[in-house]
What we know:
The termini are far apart. By secondary structure, the protein is of the alpha/beta class. It has helices at residues 17-27, 46-58, 70-82, 92-102, 118-132, 141-144, 157-165, 201-214, 226-243, 255-268; strands spanning 5-11, 34-40, 62-65, 87-89, 147-151, 171-175, 194-198, 246-249. It is globular and about 65 Å long. The longest helix has 18 residues, at 226-243. The strands form two sheets. The chain has a four-stranded parallel beta sheet with strand order 2-1-3-4, with helices on both faces. A four-stranded parallel beta sheet has the order 6-5-7-8, with helices on both faces. It is 45% helix and 15% strand. The chain folds into two domains: 5-114, Response regulator (Rossmann fold, 3-Layer(aba) Sandwich); 118-268, Rossmann fold (3-Layer(aba) Sandwich), CATH 3.40.50. Helix 5 (118-132) packs antiparallel against helix 7, helix 7 crosses helix 10 and helix 8 packs across helix 9. Its EC number is 2.7.11.32, 2.7.4.27. It comes from Ligilactobacillus salivarius. Bifunctional serine/threonine kinase and phosphorylase involved in the regulation of the pyruvate, phosphate dikinase (PPDK) by catalyzing its phosphorylation/dephosphorylation.
Amino acid sequence: MSDSITNIFVISDSVGETGLSLITAGTVQFPNSKFNIRRFPLTKTISLLQGILNKAKRENAIILHTFVNPELSDYVNNFGKENNLHVIDALTGVVQILAEITGEKPLNAAGLKHKLNPDYFKRIEALEFAVTYDDGKDPSGFLKADIVLLGVSRTSKTPLSLYLANQGYKVANLPLVPKTQIPKEIYQVDKKRIFGLTNDPEVLNNIRRQRMISYGLDPDTVYSNMDNINQELEFATNLYKELGCLQINVATKSIEETATLIIESLDSED
Length: 270
């Protein structure tokens, strides 16, 4: 197993849902590897695209794109060849084959799959909600959320929030730090809507060390110290018991698996 992290950029002139689903389906086949997936939706101009691609070059990222605009698609493909980057063009080939078979010229319009689809607008609203109420930035979000995620640093709160938001759930999350005051709103939320995330100390230690290394910093810090990690996890566990919420250990679970457990728990209460 490699300790390195593979950066993956998902770029689209729509919301990037298709690309994210494809790359997620691929990466879960490699449980011993680490991936950092970032989505860049609504990229509709060359100038905006250039900045993203330059960042991808600096980070030696794999690029997966789902552009329906041929100009943007060609620009990414050419950039990849010129800079020796791995580029996955996930849509152009499909559109070209369908055009050849049907004899119809494609519209080349982004996001048509979502037009007039209420579920699409629900997901967009949920994604905006997740961004607004990420990391406990506004405690009022806990009372408005369908799901509240609690967890110490590096228990996948934000990616899980975004994944659930893409399923249409409004999610707010709160990072837990010992000796900090828990917002009073947390105690006002129905415990069935709160989910406490935890992790194995060794796994968390490795994740945090790799995080520091990726920043070019010393991996042996207070952040990755095992005694501190154990204290954080104990603090979180005690809070979960106090709240009476479901606790989920994410150490061996993918984002999809954790999300499924949460959704099934919610459904069982209906």
